[in-house]
Specification:
171 residues; mainly alpha; 2 domains; 3-stranded antiparallel sheet; 6 helices; 9% strand
Length: 171
């Protein structure tokens, strides 16, 4: 167990003490139970990732590919997508494609092969109005430093294991 502390108002503390006394438990146990229930509730109601229908995404990718290929700026991309009845909007750490007519979300741009980080690099700026500044700074910082973006990382060995020793070539 780990000890935590926080402050509550006098009326809240009185209510906690009354509730704990009614249940014949300590205030600490009442709070632990409440936290456990809240965490369970949040886990049970967590959003599942929205995945678009693969056939829809394939067709949309074909329709929008020329717009993504031709665009040389965010504003030009927006215009080209608008001509095809679609628009991009910020979504979490990336972008989502929406219908212009009703605003309905169709899929993530990355599902079309258009990763937000790649578009940032290409246009040398973030999507207008996107709030994920840490990603933008990391991507543009890497570009300004001339870093190679196609680096391959080897998986780490599980904790507590070591790779087998190399043969030294000695008999």
């Amino acid at each position: 167990m780990q000890r935590i502390s926080f402050q509550v108002s006098h009326p809240t503390l009185a209510a906690l003490m009354d509730a704990a006394q009614r249940d014949d438990i300590s205030v600490g146990q009442l709070l632990r139970d409440a936290v456990r229930r809240e965490l369970h509730r949040r886990h049970a109601t967590a959003k599942t990732p929205q995945r678009a229908d693969e056939r829809l995404v394939a067709g949309l990718a074909t329709l929008l590919a020329p717009a993504f290929a031709e665009a040389e700026s965010w504003s030009q991309l927006a215009s080209l997508l608008r001509l095809r009845g679609h628009e991009l909007r910020p979504a979490g750490g990336g972008l989502a494609v929406h219908h212009i007519s009703d605003g309905r979300r169709i899929c993530k741009a990355s599902e079309l092969g258009q990763a937000y980080s790649t578009l940032i690099r290409r246009f040398q700026s973030p999507f207008p109005g996107h709030s994920q500044r840490h990603l933008v700074e990391r991507v543009l910082g890497d570009v300004s430093a001339g870093a190679d973006h196609d680096e391959v990382l080897e998986p780490l060995a599980p904790t507590g294991t070591h790779p087998p020793p190399r043969a030294s070539g000695l008999p």
